[in-house]
Amino acid sequence: MSDQTVTRTNDEQQSNSLTDQQPTSHTVDAETDEQLVDSWTDYEFEGEAAITVEDLDVYYGDDHAIDSISMEIPEQSVTALIGPSGCGKSTYLRCLNRMNDRIDSARVDGTVEIDGENIYEGDTDLVELRKKVGMVFQSPNPFPKSIRENVSYGPRKHGDVNVGLLGKLLGGDDSEAERRLVERSLKQAALWDEVSDRLEDNALGLSGGQQQRLCIARCLAVDPDVILMDEPASALDPVATAKIEDLIEQLAEEYTVVVVTHNMQQAARISDQTAVFLTGGQLVEYDDTDKIFENPESDRVEDYVTGKFG
Amino acid sequence: MFDRVALGIVGTAIVTFLLGWTTLFDRTSPDTAVAGLSLFALFGVAFLLAGAGLIAAGIASNVGLFKTTADQYTGLGTGVAFGVVGFATGGLVTTILFGVGATGSALAGLVVALIVTLGIAVLPEDIGTTLPVGLLALVWGVLLAAGFVDVGWVWDPPSLAATFHAPIVVPLVTIALSLLVAWSGAIVAEGFGSQGRQNGAYLMIGLNAFGMIAVLLLLILFVVRKGLPTLLEGAQFGPGLSISVPFLTKGVMLGQQYNGIFPAIVGTVWLVVGAVVLAIPMGIGAAVFLTEYAEQGRFTAVIETATNALWSTPSIVYGLFGYAFLVPRFGNRNSLLAGMMVLGFMLLPLVVITSREAIKSVPDEYRDASAALGVNQWQTIRSVVLPAAMPGVVTGVILGVGRIAGETAPILLVTSGAPFPARAPSILGSFRFTATPPFVQNEALLQASSALPYQLYAVITAGVGQEEAFGWGTALVLLLVVLGFYAIGIASRIYFRRKLHQ
Amino acid sequence: MSTTELHQQVRERFGVETIDDRVVALGAAGALCLLVSAITFLIGSPFTALPFAGFLFTVAYGLYEYQAATAKALSFLATIGTGTILALITFYLLVEALPAIRLMGAEMFTSTSEPMWRTRGEEMYSLVPMMWGTLVTTVLAMLIAGPLGVAGALFISEIAPDAVREVVKPAVETLAGIPSIVYGFIGFTILNDYMMESLELPTSGSLVIVGLVVGLMSLPTVVSVAEDAIASVPESMKSGSLALGTTDWQTIKSITIPASFSGVSAAVLLGVGRAIGETMAATVILGHAQRLPDPLYDVFGNTETLTSLIASQYGVASGTHMSALFAAGVVLFVSVTVLSIGSQYIERRMKHQLQGES
Ligand SMILES: Nc1ncnc2c1ncn2[C@@H]1O[C@H](COP(=O)(O)OP(=O)(O)OP(=O)(O)O)[C@@H](O)[C@H]1O
Ligand SMILES: [Mg+2]
Fold it and tell me: Disulfide check for B409: which of A22, B266, B315, C131 has CB 3.0–4.6 Å away?
């Protein structure tokens, strides 16, 4: 609610000031901008692309939240998405595992290719897609279950571990496998040492930072290829944030990580490449993180990363 | 091909499901013959086809003819569901075939249930979800198609007062089996697995929602169709704007051409007005005290528990209370005033509960802002909290009023008088002031009265007979009044919510 | 206590700025008037109006002169009044039921030897058949309203598209308002005849019809209360599950239903309470036989429920007979109150659990 109102007023102010002052030069600017932007966002990298996005548009009703974005995300690296509030970062992220399908008013145009398949094609299996593309949310959202059940939730639902009465009956009880899986995922998420002696406690009793790492462990247990993180450290204190940052850097050895953040230093510290979104759902510049923070092409991006605007 | 078979099965099952209902309510006759087959034989053929299709699909998936996402095991959840079906089938079949008593059939049912549950749970999913349903459908199909169960079939269980004839039993079994078949077919259609189970569950939940709405709407339509002729009997529209509906404006009198329910309408109106006058100030007052003044602690907890207990107290208990407490104090006879008070007591907890909710949902910032201006607590409540809470309170009150307007039991005990009165109570016209205590008198308030729900009850106790049409008319008016209150209440809530979100 | 201390206290409690002895006096006068009128009303004196008028006058004057203090005092009185009503109901039910309970002792709730209900000659009041009737109809009703109601709630809040939800939800809430006497009338005129004819029932009316009708009747209530509970499960929790690659149905089963379990069971318990207390449908449909069905599970037989017993006999009852009806009321009141308190307890427990406390 408050988010929306804030962004709306921002939009209004901006468009008002633009139209009021120099309506003609603004359109000219925009035209040259467009070509420039294309070159600024054309990021060249070595290796394979995990995700290829082409001409992505998202509308909420009549609101244009993502404006024709194309970008390739390299695999096994950390890609940071930064930009002012309301510019569409979360919306963009949710396009990559089709969580936008949950929002009735949202409409998505364009293609998103993962593993060479367009996930917006008719018969995409959402379940398979989301197994492959995991997501960690802005605020920790553990299930009201025990820590162990939280981690093994995904594998259980996918039938990868059979526990309980039926498993016992058939002699194929997977509790041992489950235990190992839980331990591995919690260790990966750097949470094992803190919770190993209380796996049966309710996850809601953990601290915020622990909960967020539990959510990461929960996501890792499904063994995705891509992990999307929407401001994973925004609700945490510096110590917990540092832990999550370390974790993200480690994860990039195995996984493709896309992370939204408001914290410029954080993006600079952890990411290999950074994409800058600006108001109106536009991708303005996308390049190596060092380049973006030291010597960006676009003036607006420079203003933004140096804190003059946004 | 695979999908089409599955969809065909689901479609067939839905048709037999609907035909089952129409047959149960005599809209289609078992004797209807289509293509030389009676309706029951037709059901039989449909089940034979569906059953064979399900089994074929299950086996085809299991041997890998079609690629599906079937799980390794069917699982205990589905197993238990079939266990329940197995319990019913096993118990009934043993009773019908061998005539064993209740304990015997229950035991047999339990044994069957246990075997079925475990047996199905460990089967591969594509077999476990199709084969049992398919077999049941085949058996039922053979029984019907081959005429083992036909229109003349009867089962007279010795221990029950009822005798079951085919025209009831066959549609009921058909409906139940159709649901099973449709569920299984829906699972097949999505190729088993978690998607298949979702499809099956959604089909059942969707059918349930559809059926629920359909039944309740049919009920209302039924009352409208039965009641409208009575309501409009002798009614005249025009010339111009003059409308006369004697059913709504007349009482019951000998020698009158059209009798009506005017006294009952007036009675209900007064009852509602009295209850509202009593309950609303008191309810809102208590809600204000509990949320704004009192410290949250033992006292508020006790009152809250008491309010909830009052809210769930049955209406007849309120009636008894009124009978024991109020009636003796109002001249030992049934009276409108006692009815008003009892209904007011019933309305009170609802007003307290909804007002508390509404007041609680007023953001604290409002109060702080007001307090920061140096305004005292009461003025804050009066000019900030109450106005902000008003929409919620109003909505709750309207819904509560709808509820008490249809209440019969308490009125029966404390207000009811002559079942078909000729005249309406005239409250406003009967105030009298006297020089001796109690100084103010209102004969009409202390007299028995009729009310819409009571009038309907009176029709029933009078043995219906010729009065039945009168009863349907009353039922229609009562329904309109009560549903009217509800519609207004809900519409106002939607309106206020929209306004809030803009 | 000195007067200044008293003033201090009054000021704190009632939040009035200017305070003098007159406020205290006024409060005392109002309280006295109300007390006297309550007493005169209780003893049934015709003079009730006098002190009550005095009370009204004090209130009017108070509202004019010391609005804040009076408003607070009035709201306090309203709160006390609410509690008092519950106390009065409990008291009067018990007092009126006492003669019958004294006559019958514990047999009233346990005796199963015939005759169980005899109002003339050697009086005999056993509530067992009625308790059984209420139990059977409630169980039947909840077998219908429980699962179907929860499924309906799931449909509305989790499955239906927005457009459908916006129509179905208010429609169901409106249907909750159909008065029970209308259901009773339909059951009496249509279902009773239908069942008698097609099942060759010996008597008009049976427990199974009451169960069906009451189940149908409680359905909308269960749906709308359960729907509120299900809709209050936070979206973030559901998204969390879906993002792990589960289907909507798996999320409903493993996250939404467990998380809203308290609210859903409160909805079902509310339905049970309604079914137990449902009077008119049972009264007009049943054939009023105060004996146990034989065999006990013969739901096609006729017996009586606690509610229908009261509604059908209060008119001809007096003395111990009437008192026995009050005893039936006590049983109803106690069981429904226990249910209500139980469901509040469950709800509170589950709320704590959801918030991670134990
Ligand atoms: N569910 C929704 N319905 C309608 N509009 C939405 C919805 N979610 C987001 N929007 C709009 O889409 C635009 C982009 O929102 P988004 O949440 O993607 O921004 P964001 O960049 O993630 O912002 P923040 O940094 O504050 O999280 C905003 O204008 C917002 O108002
Ligand atoms: Mg965001």
Answer: B315
CA dihedral C52, C56, C58, C63 (to 10 degrees): 160
Pair A40, A126 in one domain: yes
Residue A165 lies in a domain: yes
What is the CATH code for C117-354?
1.10.3720.10
- The predicted model gives A100-126 an average pLDDT of 86
Burial C54-75 (b: 16+ CB within 10 A, else e): bbeebbeebeeebebbbbbbbb
Q: Residue B149 and residue B142: Cα distance in Å, rounded?
A: 9
For the four alpha carbons of A60, A63, A68 and A74, in that order, the dihedral sign comes to: negative
Residue A270 is assigned to a structural domain of this protein: yes
SS3 assignment for C42-62:
HCCCHHHHHHHHHHHHHHHHH
Tens digit of each residue's pLDDT (9 = 90 or more) over B52-105: 999 999 998 888 888 888 777 788 888 888 899 889 888 888 888 887 777 888
pLDDT of residue C357: 45
The residues spanned by each domain of chain C are: 3-95, 117-354
Same domain (yes/no): A106, A180:
no
pLDDT digits (tens, 9 = 90+) for A26-77: 444 554 566 666 667 677 777 787 888 888 899 988 888 888 888 888 888 8
What gap in Å lies between CA C108 and CA C102, rounded to an integer?
9
**Percentage of chain B lying above the pLDDT 90 cut:** 19
pLDDT for B148 equals 82
> Do residue A65 and residue A194 come from a single domain?
no
Ligand nearest to the CA of A92: 1
CA distance C120 to chain B (A): 22
- State the CATH number of the domain containing residue A95: 3.40.50.300
Q: Could you give the ipTM of this predicted complex?
A: 0.88
Helices B262-288 and B336-360: crossing angle in degrees, nearest 10, is: 40
A49 and A191: one domain? no
Residue A268 within any structural domain of the chain? yes
Tell me phi and psi for residue B253, to 5 degrees.
-140, 150
In whole angstroms, what is the distance from residue A135 CA to residue A151 CA?
14
**What is chain C's mean pLDDT, rounded?**
84
What gap in Å lies between CA C46 and CA B268, rounded to an integer? 27
Residue A123 counted as domain residue: yes
Output the pLDDT for position B427.
67
Question: Cα–Cα distance between C322 and B66 in angstroms, integer?
Answer: 72
pLDDT single digits (tens) C32-58: 888 888 888 877 776 777 778 888 888
Domain of residue A180, residue span: 143-205
- What is the full DSSP assignment across A145-185? SBHHHHHHHHHHHTTSS--SHHHHHTT---HHHHHHHHHHH
Instruction: Give the closest residue (by CA) to ligand 1 atom 25.
Output: A85
Question: A158 vs C245: CB contact, 8 Å cut-off?
Answer: yes
**Count of the separate structural domains present in chain A:** 2
Nearest CA to ligand 1 atom 31: A4
pTM for the model: 0.86
> Do A83 and A124 sit in the same domain of this protein?
yes
Domain identity same for A118 and A155: no
Task: Look at A159 and B72 and tell me if their CB atoms are within 8 Å.
Answer: yes
Report how far residue B447's alpha carbon sits from residue B332's, in angstroms, rounded to the nearest whole number.
11
**Ligand 1 center–CA A271 separation, angstroms:** 23
Integer distance in angstroms from the first to the last C-alpha of chain A?
Answer: 20
**Cis amide prior to B239 (ω within 30 degrees):** yes
CB contact under 8 A, C241 and A129: no
pLDDT digits (tens, 9 = 90+) for B344-366: 999 999 899 888 888 888 888 88
Least confident of A77-86, B111-120, B330-339, C238-247: B330-339
Q: Which two tokens stand for residue B244?
A: 């006369």
